[in-house]
């Protein structure tokens, strides 16, 4: 789970997460070599499934395949190499030409490559051996369950900084020794001031708090990472048949909801995912991820690529394509995902980055903001950004936290946010899920399969996984009726939820467990 930072606002990915460096830069493959690539055949018999030939004068043999041609047969390709043959995978032609080697595949034995069939486009296998030698590499399509891993991220040391909001009409003339001053959110009159030491920052904070021109001054505290589809049978949150000792029917009513909306017109709905970014290369995300609308506030880049995995996992729950034989099924097929990266490869970020992310989502016309992150201390800077977003008719959904405490995390407990706790397969509150005053809803959040940053699927547990279920249903409601106001969507979600625990609202389950079918039924 997460590491908390004592004495500061520590926002984090609200789940156990895996840090993935899926691509490693190595020697590039010449275009002329790729042109000689042979197609991996669609093997009719397992016994005949071998790639055979001779290595060229450079000791290379290149094969290509399209994942779409094999994904109906399984979830992964396996290539059995030997001590005379070395294999390298590339997820696309562009990666091969740029030398971006896919290095996440597992070795089931010392010599077997194991590669997920979740990618769109064409993939390449480069075999290396002695020039002129013959080779024979058995190849199989296999089916595997989502993986189970966890990793606690480390927080990077950064220079202390203050976030200072000037009162309307007032001019802030002093920086009190700041080494750097930048405008964080001009519309909100917030600036970020960097200091060389915490002592300098603390002294400046006290001076700002005595100034009549300053509304508030607070530390920029760190945030930290709190067809039938191949894996659909593992998505108990969509259809709980009692699999793996679950309670039949303890799901969000997805199947009944699909029947109810069949044939109805759905409009595209923008959902901003404030997280570690999104990998747009999966077939399940085709046409859904608007990288041009997103932004990377960690690296100052227009491309919000996911180098941690958490953001892609959240995005899959909301919007992965359904019935296409690929990995999983998302809740709303008409979601337009806006990837906004506010967490780095280790899952760490800052309050200032989150403020920028909320503002960016607002400017890009998002109807829903998903924040599967949270912490203990409140932030006036974030409150200002949230208030501005709500004025634009945006629904903001955030995770309640994972400490099993009777206090809802922040920003989930903000009055501007719909807070979400987690339930398990038996429709009871997950032991890790925070509860208390301000909890609005609960949703499935235990062993939820979805994508990482590298094409693999992982069972993720946490209120991080519950939150996108609510965001997905909310986006579906707006897709059905774009004129719905945010306040109406929130009201319907609470009214339609299945009452759990004590009758009526309670601080363990809020208004109850998310029910997509009931919510759709109540749309006026």
Highlighted features:
7-stranded parallel β-sheet, disordered N terminus, 524 residues, 5-stranded antiparallel β-sheet, single chain, alpha/beta
Question: What does the model show?
Answer:
The protein has 524 residues and is α/β, with parallel strands linked by helices. The chain is built from ten helices and 28 strands. The strands form eight sheets. A seven-stranded parallel β-sheet has the order 19-20-18-22-24-25-26, with helices on both faces. A five-stranded antiparallel β-sheet has the order 4-12-6-10-9, with no helix packed on it. It has a four-stranded mixed β-sheet with strand order 3-5-11-7. Helix 5 (310-319) runs parallel beside helix 8 and helix 6 (351-363) packs parallel to helix 7. The longest helix is centred in the last third of the chain and has 18 residues, at 463-480. The chain is globular, with a radius of gyration of 24 Å. The model is unreliable at 1-12, 15-20, 150-155 and 227-231 (pLDDT under 50).
Topology, please?
Blueprint: E1 12-13, E2 23-25, H1 31-35, E3 38-39, E4 50-54, E5 60-66, E6 76-80, E7 86-90, H2 93-98, E8 100-102, E9 106-107, E10 112-116, E11 122-128, E12 134-142, E13 161-166, E14 180-185, E15 190-194, H3 198-209, E16 214-219, E17 222-224, H4 254-261, E18 269-275, E19 295-296, H5 310-319, E20 335-341, E21 348-350, H6 351-363, E22 368-371, E23 373-374, H7 380-391, E24 395-399, E25 418-423, E26 441-444, E27 448-451, E28 457-460, H8 463-480, H9 486-496, H10 516-521
Parallel strand pairs: 3-5, 18-20, 18-22, 19-20, 22-24, 24-25, 25-26
Antiparallel strand pairs: 1-23, 2-8, 4-12, 5-11, 6-10, 6-12, 7-11, 9-10, 13-15, 13-16, 14-15, 17-21, 27-28
């Amino acid at each position: 789970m997460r590491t908390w930072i004592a004495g500061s606002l520590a926002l984090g990915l609200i789940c156990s997460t895996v840090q993935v460096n899926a691509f490693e830069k190595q020697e590039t493959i010449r275009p002329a070599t790729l042109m000689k690539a042979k197609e991996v055949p669609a093997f009719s018999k397992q016994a005949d499934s071998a790639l055979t030939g001779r290595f060229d004068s450079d000791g290379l043999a290149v094969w290509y395949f399209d994942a779409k041609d094999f994904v109906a047969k399984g979830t992964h390709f396996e290539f059995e190499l030997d001590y005379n043959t070395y294999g390298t995978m590339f997820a696309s032609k562009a990666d091969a030409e740029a030398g971006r080697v896919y290095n996440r595949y597992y070795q089931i034995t010392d010599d077997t490559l194991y590669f997920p069939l979740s990618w769109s486009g064409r993939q390449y296998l480069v075999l290396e051996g002695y020039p002129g030698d013959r080779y024979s590499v058995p190849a199989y399509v296999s089916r595997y369950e989502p993986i189970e891993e966890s990793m606690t991220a480390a927080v990077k040391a950064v220079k202390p900084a203050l976030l200072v909001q000037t009162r309307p009409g007032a001019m802030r003339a002093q920086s009190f020794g700041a080494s750097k001053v930048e405008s964080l959110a001009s519309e909100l009159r917030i600036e970020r001031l960097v200091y060389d030491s915490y002592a300098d920052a603390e002294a400046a904070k006290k001076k700002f708090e005595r100034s009549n021109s300053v509304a508030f001054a607070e530390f920029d505290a760190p945030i930290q990472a709190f067809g039938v589809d191949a894996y659909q049978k593992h998505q108990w949150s969509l259809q709980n048949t009692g699999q793996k000792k679950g309670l039949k029917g303890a799901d969000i009513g997805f199947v009944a909801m699909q029947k109810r909306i069949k044939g109805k017109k759905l409009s595209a709905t923008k959902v901003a995912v404030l997280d570690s970014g999104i990998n747009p290369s999966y077939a399940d995300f085709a046409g859904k991820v608007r990288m041009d609308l997103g932004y990377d506030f960690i690296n100052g880049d227009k491309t919000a690529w996911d180098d941690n995995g958490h953001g892609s996992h959240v995005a899959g729950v909301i919007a992965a394509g359904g019935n296409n034989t690929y990995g999983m099924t998302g809740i709303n097929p008409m979601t337009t995902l806006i990837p906004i990266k506010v967490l780095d490869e280790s899952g760490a970020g800052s309050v200032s980055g989150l403020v920028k992310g909320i503002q960016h989502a607002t400017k890009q016309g998002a109807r829903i903001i998903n924040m599967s992150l949270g912490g203990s201390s409140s932030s006036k800077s974030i409150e200002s950004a949230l208030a501005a977003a709500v004025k634009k008719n945006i629904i903001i959904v955030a995770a309640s936290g994972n400490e099993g405490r009777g206090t809802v995390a922040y920003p989930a407990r903000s009055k501007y946010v719909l807070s979400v706790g987690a339930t398990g397969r038996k429709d009871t509150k997950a032991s890790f899920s925070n509860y208390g005053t301000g909890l609005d809803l609960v949703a499935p959040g235990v062993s939820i399969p979805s994508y990482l940053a590298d094409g693999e699927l992982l069972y993720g547990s946490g209120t991080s996984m519950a939150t996108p279920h609510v965001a997905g249903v909310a986006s579906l409601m707006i897709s059905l009726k774009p004129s719905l106001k945010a306040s109406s969507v929130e009201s319907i979600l609470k009214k339609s939820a299945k009452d759990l625990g004590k009758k009526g609202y309670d601080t363990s389950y809020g208004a109850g467990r998310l029910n997509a079918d009931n919510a759709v039924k109540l749309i006026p």
